[in-house]
Automatic annotation (TrEMBL):
Protein name in the entry: tRNA (uracil-O(2)-)-methyltransferase
UniProt keyword terms in alphabetical order: Cytoplasm, Metal-binding, Methyltransferase, S-adenosyl-L-methionine, Transferase, tRNA processing, Zinc, Zinc-finger
Family: Belongs to the TRM44 family.
Organism: Alligator sinensis
Record-listed E.C. numbers: 2.1.1.211
Record keyword Transferase present: yes
Subcellular location: Cytoplasm
Entries under SUPFAM superfamilies matching the protein: S-adenosyl-L-methionine-dependent methyltransferases
GO CC term (a single one): cytoplasm
Residues in C3H1-type zinc fingers: 451-481
GO molecular-function terms, A-Z: tRNA(Ser) (uridine(44)-2'-O-)-methyltransferase activity; zinc ion binding
Source lineage: Eukaryota, Metazoa, Chordata, Craniata, Vertebrata
Length: 496
């Protein structure tokens, strides 16, 4: 099945797939009784309300796609945050109705990233702010009504939010397991919403201990268990977003009375300490069940906490220090080691050396192209990456080995010149791309049109036979006089 995400976040399959494969699959699925490991989509809120709010927000914030200054896919990120915002607005509206509240809930988004979710929720009347270790370019576009702070959130007494109603962890990475803890210790009334993505424990990467579950399911169970150990009734739901990681966990009520706060907090500390020695009993449960309960849903919070295995020793919590040694917040300056930050001169030299090696490996004989014309353009040979590496000097190889992926990553980054397939590299022939029948998705067509003639053609400058395409059909500029200004730069200047 050939499919792609488009602007509304819906998959549109080909008609041939619908006719040839769907009916047989439906017949097969109708006979199966396999239980899903996840809750059904939007099981905790009104689907009708959600659909209405989502369409309204999508129309209201669709212009963000056109002025997105980040390198990430604008349509995926904008409409995903619109969908998350719609979900939270409905969830909070129903909470106000349930508790008889008139004031809109306040929030703090921990690890807010691009800050779009904070911007939407703030514009919709909810007071709040976002915090992230690294400022994003798009922050300057939101205006003063969107409050975003650049700092590293640490699990300690200095980062509690006693006056905030909800904490949000939207793809919050290393902070994800700490969100329930920070919410629980901020105040008895503080709630939380987390959308786990990358797998982190309290002190680093999460290590699997269950081969019978998928890694994603096991990690969701772990984050759920954290919420339960902190004294929350944890609920699970699946969002309607264009992402494979779309299960959220919500803690909006406690399993214990406020008078037992000190006792429960003592047990929270014991649970957190237990993760350093991995003294936790993993248990299989159905999707969406309350993972605190082993056999009796009427147990008290104290009894539930007692069911968990903890070490004897305790760590005294110091409000001025980290709650668990070993936690490291993300660096403010993100280390990029995918060859993208290598000096341009160094990259150009490697590209030219590899291209010359491929071109000199063999001289192709003239042959007829599909359109009947004679091919006299030298594409060179295809060589294994290992053989290519042997022709590079030691200093170049040493420098490349310090980057993730090394030589292969550098060659893939220069996709205008090379193709890397099954461990072999060859010169790219752009005529083959023109002959391909596959139609790219709308977003790729639009991005391709925006990038048209914004970079010089490598083949026009360096290849002994020039470019295999004419100036009219080549997406790159044949000379500086053909260069166009990047549309992204134009958008940023227009916004400023």
């Amino acid at each position: 099945m050939n499919e792609s995400w488009v602007s509304d976040g819906i998959v549109y399959p080909k008609t041939t797939w619908l006719g040839n494969e769907l009916l047989s699959k439906l017949a097969k699925w109708s006979l199966e009784q396999k239980q899903s490991e996840f809750k059904s989509t939007l099981s905790l809120i009104s689907v009708a309300k959600y659909s209405k709010i989502y369409q309204e927000l999508k129309e209201k914030y669709k212009e963000m796609v056109k002025v997105w200054p980040e390198v990430t896919d604008p349509e995926k990120f904008v409409y995903e945050d619109v969908a998350i915002a719609a979900y939270l607005l409905i969830l909070w509206e129903e909470e106000r109705a349930e508790k008889g509240l008139s004031k809109k809930q306040s929030f703090v988004d921990l690890g807010c990233g691009n800050g779009l979710l904070v911007h939407i929720l703030s514009r919709e009347g909810h007071p709040g702010k976002g915090i992230d270790v690294r400022r994003r370019k798009i922050w300057d576009m939101y205006g003063p009504q969107t409050h975003l702070e650049e700092c590293a959130v640490k699990p300690c007494g200095s980062y509690l939010f006693p006056d905030v109603d909800w904490l949000i962890g939207n793809h919050s990475d290393e902070l994800t397991p700490w969100v329930p803890v920070i919410a629980a210790r901020s105040s008895y009334s503080c709630c939380y919403f987390v959308l786990p993505c990358c797998f982190f424990d309290f002190h680093g990467k999460y290590n699997r201990r269950q081969s019978k579950k998928t890694q994603y399911r096991e990690y969701l169970d772990f984050v759920t268990q954290v919420g339960c150990a902190c004294g929350f009734n944890v609920e699970e739901d699946s969002l309607r977003i264009p992402s494979t990681k779309r299960v959220c966990l919500i803690g909006k009520s406690r399993t214990y009375p406020s008078t037992q706060e000190s006792l429960i907090d003592k047990q929270r500390t014991q649970y957190i300490n237990s993760r350093q020695s991995c003294i936790v009993i993993p248990q299989d449960r159905r999707a969406g069940s309350n993972h605190c309960d082993n056999h009796n849903i009427k147990k008290s919070a104290v009894d539930k906490a007692a069911d968990l295995e903890f070490p004897e020793n305790e760590t005294k919590i110091d409000d001025s220090g980290i709650w668990l040694s070993g936690f490291r917040p993300r660096e403010k300056v993100e280390q990029v080691r995918n060859c993208a930050t290598l000096p341009r001169d160094f990259v150009d030299d490697v590209v030219l050396d590899v291209a010359n090696l491929l071109l000199s490996a063999t001289q192709e004989k003239p042959c007829n192209l599909p359109d009947g014309s004679l091919n006299t353009w030298n594409r060179g040979d295809s060589l294994p990456l290992r053989e290519v590496a042997e022709h590079l000097d030691k200093e170049t190889l040493k420098r490349l080995k310090s980057e993730y992926g090394g030589l292969q990553t550098l060659l893939k980054n220069n996709h205008q010149v090379f193709e890397v397939i099954n461990g072999r590299v060859q010169i790219r022939d752009w005529r083959e791309k023109k002959q391909a029948k596959k139609t790219p998705p709308e977003i790729k067509r639009r991005l391709s049109a925006e990038a048209f003639k914004t970079r010089l053609c490598w083949f026009f400058i360096h290849h002994p036979d020039g470019c295999s395409l004419t100036s009219e059909s080549c997406p790159y500029a044949h000379g500086t006089e053909e260069l166009r200004q990047s549309q992204i730069l134009k958008k940023i200047k227009h916004v400023q």
